[in-house]
Structure to design on (234 residues):
C-alpha cells in the first residue's frame, strides 16, 4: 500500500470513529509519527496532504526537519532531557510529553530566550508503569498551578501512552482515565484544555471514541519502522 492509500484509509477510520462518538471529523488531528523515516518520506506524505508530524528524538529531528518540506509542522512526542530543550524549542511548534516541573521551567526559560511561547501537553503515566515516563496523576494535580504560572508555556492538555495491548478495547479504561483527569485539571485551572493526545496505530479508534483530539499514528501510515540494527546492516 502506498502512503496515500494508507492515509486515505486512516482518515476514513478516523471519520467513522468520530461519527460513532457524535464528533466532527475535524475535531481530531492526525499526527503522523515519522521517527526513523527519512525526509523523502516526509515529502511523499506532504504531497499526499499530511501536514502534522511527530518525532521523538532531537538528534534525528534536527537532521530531518531542515531537509523536509517547509509546509510540514512538527510536534515533539518523546521524553525530553534538559540539555535538549533549546533545540526542541527551536524545532517544534508543540512539545508533548512534559512530565516534570523542572523540564517545564527549562522550556519556559528557553522559549523566553527565543522570544516564543510554546504550547505543551503534560504526559501522564496512566497505568503507573515503572518503565514509563509521565506524571503520576496526583503529582500532576498538585503541581498544575505552578506549571500554569510559567510565563512562556501554555498548557494545552494531556498526553498518554497506555500499556501495549493486543486488543484495542483493553486501552479504553486508560483513555477514559486521561479524559477524566483533564476535567479535574480544567477545574483546578478554571479554564478549558483543548487537547487529549492519545491513541496510536493499534488503538486510535477507541481513543477517539473516548475523546482524543490528537492521535499519533506511525506504523499504520508508514509501515513497519526499520530498526537501527537493520539499518546498520544495510
Ligand atoms: C512511536 C510512537 C507512536 C506511534 O506508534 P505506532 O504504533 O507506530 O503508531 C505514538 N506515540 C509515541 C509517543 C511514539 O513514540
Amino acid at each position: 500500500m502506498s502512503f496515500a492509500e494508507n492515509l486515505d484509509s486512516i482518515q476514513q477510520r478516523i471519520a467513522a470513529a468520530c461519527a460513532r462518538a457524535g464528533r466532527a471529523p475535524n475535531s481530531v488531528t492526525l499526527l503522523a509519527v515519522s521517527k526513523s523515516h527519512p525526509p523523502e518520506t516526509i515529502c511523499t506524505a506532504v504531497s499526499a496532504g499530511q501536514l502534522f508530524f511527530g518525532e521523538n528524538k532531537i538528534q534525528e529531528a534536527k537532521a530531518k526537519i531542515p531537509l523536509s518540506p517547509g509546509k510540514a509542522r512538527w510536534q515533539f512526542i518523546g521524553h525530553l532531557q534538559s540539555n535538549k530543550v533549546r533545540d526542541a524549542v527551536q524545532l517544534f511548534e508543540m512539545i508533548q510529553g512534559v512530565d516534570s516541573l523542572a523540564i517545564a521551567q527549562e522550556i519556559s526559560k528557553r522559549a523566553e530566550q527565543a522570544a516564543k511561547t510554546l504550547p505543551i501537553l503534560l504526559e501522564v503515566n496512566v497505568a503507573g508503569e515503572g518503565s514509563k515516563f509521565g506524571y503520576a496523576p496526583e503529582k500532576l494535580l498538585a503541581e498544575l498551578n505552578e506549571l500554569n504560572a510559567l510565563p512562556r508555556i501554555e498548557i494545552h492538555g494531556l498526553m498518554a501512552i497506555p500499556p501495549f495491548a493486543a486488543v484495542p478495547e483493553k486501552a479504553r479504561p486508560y483513555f477514559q482515565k486521561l479524559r477524566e483527569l483533564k476535567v479535574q485539571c480544567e477545574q483546578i485551572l478554571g479554564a478549558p484544555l483543548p487537547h487529549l493526545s492519545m491513541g496510536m496505530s493499534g488503538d486510535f479508534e477507541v481513543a477517539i471514541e473516548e475523546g482524543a483530539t490528537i492521535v499519533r499514528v506511525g506504523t499504520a501510515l508508514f509501515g513497519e519502522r526499520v530498526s537501527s540494527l537493520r539499518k546498520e546492516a544495510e
Observations:
- The radius of gyration is 17 Å.
- The pocket of pyridoxal-5'-phosphate is lined by residues 33, 35, 56, 77, 161, 200-202, 216-220 (CB under 6 Å).
- DSSP finds ten helices and eight strands in the chain.
